[in-house]
Amino acid sequence: MNPYELTISQALKKMDTGELSAVELTQSCLDRIDAVDKDVRAFISVDRQGALFQAENADRQRKAGQGGRLCGIPLSVKDLLSTKGCRTTCGSKILENYIPPYDATVVQKIKEAGAVILGKTTMDEFAMGSTSESCAFGVPRNPWKKGYVAGGSSGGSAVSVASCECPGSLGSDTGGSIRQPASLCGIVGMKPTYGRVSRYGLTAFASSLDQVGPLCRTVEDCALMMNVICGYDEMDSTSVKQDVPAFSLSLTEGLEGLTVGVPLEYFTEGLDVEVQNIIRNSIEVLRKKGARIVDVSLPHTEYCVAVYYLIAPSEASSNLARYDGVLYGYRDMEADTLLDMYKQTRSKGFGAEVKRRILIGTYALSSGYYDAYYKKASQVRTLILNDFKTTFQSCDVLISPVTPTPAWKMGENTEDPLAVYLSDILTISANLAGIPGMSVPGGFTTEGLPVGVQLQAAHFQEEKLLKTGFNLEQGLGLEQRKLDI
Question: Residue 51: inside a domain, yes or no?
Answer without folding.
Answer: yes
